[in-house]
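Q: My collaborator sent me two sequences in one message, no labels, and asked for predicted structures for both. Can we handle them in order? The first one she listed is below.
A: Yes, handling them in the order given. First sequence, followed by its structure tokens:
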Amino acid sequence: MSRRPISGEGVPGRLTARTPRVAAALDSMGGFAALVTGVGGRLGRRPLELAAFVEQLEIVGVRSISLTALTAMFSCMVVAIQFTLQMARFGAQDYVGQVVSVSQVRELGPVLTALIAGGRIGAGITAELGAMKVTEQIDAIRSMGADPVRKLVIPRVLAAIVALPILTMTANIVGIGSAMVMARLQSGVAMARFYHASVRAVTMSDVLGGLGKAAFFGALIALIACHQGLVADGGTTGVGRATTRTVVLASLATLVSDFAFTKVLLLLGI
């Protein structure tokens, strides 16, 4: 005769199997919070690693311009095509410039730049720091009495904070210009009319709100990437896993924080 299972039997085993994952997630969150606190406490201290900052600005900013421009160009052209087709049904093609420009400046510019260029930036930072971690170069920096956060993390975070708004502004200019040309070719909307409609619709608060989002996304992506690189282990395989986690986490964090940032801006009337 088979024994009836006791109520709850087997549950402890499942909890035990999940416990390491929960503990690892909590440990990762604690490590990330400690890194954010450490970076915040060191930002105002001198001297600044200026040479490293300029080098990282070139890596994360200049080398991402072409990718950002192409992304903005084709995304805005698609948006312009869709809006001109739909608004042509109501004879409202003249409003295409307003809709495309405001959506690009407030949302599409900062978010797409963070997702595309930010993914490239985050993956590069994690791969670089992860390789230093698994080859014990970071331990060597500590053994010489230097601070890895000051020498490695802060220059990359500052470079991302500066680079993302510049890339976003580039994306806005290229995207709106591409949408202007596409609206002219698709529905015959005069480029001058598109331009003047965009100028009237986009306010300084729209521009500053989008650039503020971009700076916040840059800091968030760089911090996530640095943390994943600093905790990477397991050789080259571990670096690859850390890079993948960075891209996923940075993308999710960008989308979630964009929603929160947008709600805050709307509550403030910006």
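Q: And the one she listed second?
A: Here it is, processed independently of the first:
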Amino acid sequence: MTAELVCIGEPMLEFNQRPPNADSQILYLEGFGGDTSNAAIAAARAGAQVAYATAVGRDSAGDRFLDFWRAEGIDVSAVLQRDSQPTGVYVVTHGKSGHEFLYYRAGSAASFYSPVDVPTEMITGAKMLFASGISQGISNSAADAVFRAIAVARGHNVKVAYDTNYRPRLWHKARAAAVMHAACAEADIVLPSLEDAVMLTGLAAPAAIVDFYLRLGPSIVVLKLGAQGALLGTAAGHIPIPPFPCNPVDGTGAGDTFCGSFLARLLAEDTPLQAAEYAAAAAALKTEGYGAVAPMPKAARVLAALGRLS
């Protein structure tokens, strides 16, 4: 399989809190997470041919990831296994203020990823590369690896997509903004969230934020607004994407679902508006179950929900 979409970044094994059982015991659902891995899975479920580039530990978590990606039809030929570094882990808890994360990622295999690990031939044979702020925030070498991957993509007319996905615990805001905005300037498609963008740009109005990112150079910007939907921006102007009706229980991975779904539908030759509408529906349907990836819908379910199945 020749991948249309190559995603690069950090996978993490997930333990997601479930509601207490009849004995008031709090249970955790084991699953798979990591923003660009989530997006890769969403894209594959939307019908795209996807490959993932990363490093995992030579441990049970790394083995489970490899088996899971293969089961999802994702090309793992560029996934490295390290003997001396583990696969990262995170825990999700749910409270009155929403979901919260506890990370165990220091020294992970993905954080040791470097420019020499970038699968240049895979990227040059693809149609699109996707990376994120987390892909770069986990270490200096990982940040350099993403810039190397972007340079390879741009040198071979491969489109570049980027999600800011700012995590303050990973790096200082000023450095994060400088690195991410440099990456956005090299991207064709930028997919920030409102919360990230407010912190990184100092702007508050969604329209102003979209215009800020368009001025950096991408031709398409989609600002994710959570429960308020999204705002699509191109040179032709702004188009609001209304939220898709749903009954949410867990927002973990919803933004990643949006990104992967949007990119997959662009690769399927949807217009940006059609792709954004699909992505909004896929992200909403994902929130109706627990875990980052288990509830991600496949294309038939999303298209049926949108009334696009003939």
